Amino acid sequence: MNSGANRADRAIVRYPTDSYFVRLEGGSPDGHAPSGRAQVGREGLGAPGPRRRRRRRRVSGRAVFLTLVVLGLGSWTAWASQRPGGVSGTVNGWISNVRGDVAKVSADPDLARARRYYNGQYQATKAYPNLTDSELSAVGVGIGVIVDWCNSQAVVIEGASGAGTASRLLVSGHDYGEVPGKSGCPADLGSPAPWKAP
Fold first, then answer.
1. Domain locations along the chain
2. Per-residue pLDDT tens digits for 104-151
3. Exposed end of the chain (fewer CB within 10 Å): N or C?
4. Which residues contact 134 (CB under 8 A, 6 or more apart)?
């Protein structure tokens, strides 16, 4: 134990003295050296002096960007809430559209090639040809595509689509579109279920 050290209970305490300091030169009352400028107008009387202009803070680009994002999101939310299904219905509709676009992009390119080939043949001869697998391969239609020849005026093309298998109906030069799954030739070309006539 160090008994000779000054401890908090034995610290030397300074007591105020009765002396004071007097500055003889004409310094400023705040303790800084004189500025060399004379007091102007009512400055010496305690009235405020000339107004100093404050520098304006510049608005940062980040603040403007965040404000625009918040306004845009708020506007979109107000717009989406007025639509059928509200905000969630709008978001779900957008998701289903994106899924449909992805399915179209990821569809088998041979399916599109077969559709173009058969439409071209119909435009040239006014009939759809009945081709064998080797003849389909010769014109560039791959193995994954199945062509169901209904007659010279109708053909069903089946192939891989983004969401599985799809069937496309071509009737007399008109494309009736795709339906999911495998579908053969319709019994009635006037109302070709499951396709809808254009």
1. 61-105, 109-180
2. 655 567 778 888 888 898 999 999 898 888 888 888 877 778 888 889
3. N
4. none
Furthest C-alpha separation in the chain: 124
Residue type at position 89 = G
* Two structure tokens written together for 162: 């983004």
Question: Using alpha carbons only, what angle is made at residue 150 by residues 148 and 153, rounded to the nearest 5 degrees?
Answer: 120
The pTM score is: 0.46
Higher pLDDT, 189 or 17: 189
Q: Which residues, including other chains, have CB under 8 Å from residue 70's CB and lie 6 or more apart?
A: none
Read off the amino acid at residue 153: Q
The structure tokens listed for 104 are 């179209």
Distance in angstroms (rounded) separating the CA atoms of residues 59 and 30: 35
CB atoms within 10 A of CB 167: 24
Strand order in the sheet with 146-151: 146-151, 154-161, 164-171, 174-180
